[in-house]
Amino acid sequence: MDWVSIIPPLVAIIVVFWKKEVILALLLAVLCSEALILLTASPATSFLAPINAIERVVDTASSPGNTRVILFSVLVGALLAFIRDSGGVTATVNYLVGKGVAKNKKQVGSLTMFTGIAVFIESNLSVLTAGIFARGLFDRFGMSRARLAYIIDSTSAPVCILILLNGWGAFILSLLDTYELPASSASILWGSVFFNFYAIFTLLIVAYTIAADKVHGPLAVEEKTLSKTDIPQQTETATKARYMLVPLLTMVLSMVGFMFWTGNGTLSEGSGSKSVLYATALATAIAYGLLLWHKRFTHKEAVEIGFKGMGELLPLVTIVLLSLTLGNSLKDLGTGVFVAGVVGEYLPLVFIVPMLFIAGAVMSFTTGTSWGTFAILIPIGVPLIQTLGLPPSLVVAAILGGGIFGDHCSPISDTTAVSSLAAGCDVLTHVKTQFPYALVAGGLTLVGYLIASIIMIG
What we know:
This protein is mainly α. It has 22 helices and no strands.
């Protein structure tokens, strides 16, 4: 469908920044995408776009993987409510401050980043664990939730794509294994770690932000104003830290166990969507059990608290669902394939790798999915390796880094919504405050790939 396939994501992005309303933007983008699909197949039926949009939402929600993401997002609301209303968050903050583990902003930031790095098994689990753990600490030291969302979002995906002992690595290996390459898929993938400049630069910028205790651009403004959405409405009386720490430890440790279990004994082959859902459900059940066991609340009170927490996250859960729906619709429309064509066939060799990075970024930004970008661009990049003799690890790294870069900038990405959910930050605020940092890392990466291409390709 050529250039018209990029109209729906453009509609979403324009409405997001014009009306400051993500749900409306996603709805209009889905309607636009479905109308274009119908217009191509049968122009006379294009008026059925609203019906098709509803069915697209139903199809998206009926997918097992997507259903797990939605259920996980809902359960997070109950878990957050349990550990917050129990007084566990306040108690944990008091404990860490009292022990000197978190006595200033730099230590709080470092602790948050370390938590995100340690939980590298799955990106959603990384942002969720670090976000829940650090919320109270950020509030205590007057740091905005936007800053928390930036740290956890800009730590999780780069760490997952650099360590690769997770579902990310297994997925990319499965894509590479279908081709005859000059070296093994595993060696090429591990070699890409050293050339994944975007992930490396992003982590270094996060580390700088924490070590220097300095923020810039819209994030600096947010730090000064601390918008109402970032200020806790009330602080629960401190009780016991176990109400927070036990469920969180349960979630992290059981996630590892479920990854082994779903992968038949192999961690990297485990299902991330299944494991994070099972781990979150178990942590929520443990949190509920602790409240009853220690008679903090009655069963009726705990159930009310849980549903209240779910209700608080309903807008963000809706954004996650609509983001997934738009991604599926754009896949049928062919948006990703069109954007991939930006690479072209007649580029000078030294420009191919930088253009693959740009193509991955634009595709991920407009479709809201990094994994979908990998699935489309790797089949385009690998034949270039085979026919032109390009360095395999450099090409793969550019594709992976571009996918993450675009995802970090995109207001229609489900990862953006989950990070905002974990930090308790408004989605648009998170996008606005993270964008300049991602843009700096992306610019440095582009220069890095140009230099690397000149050295390695000539």
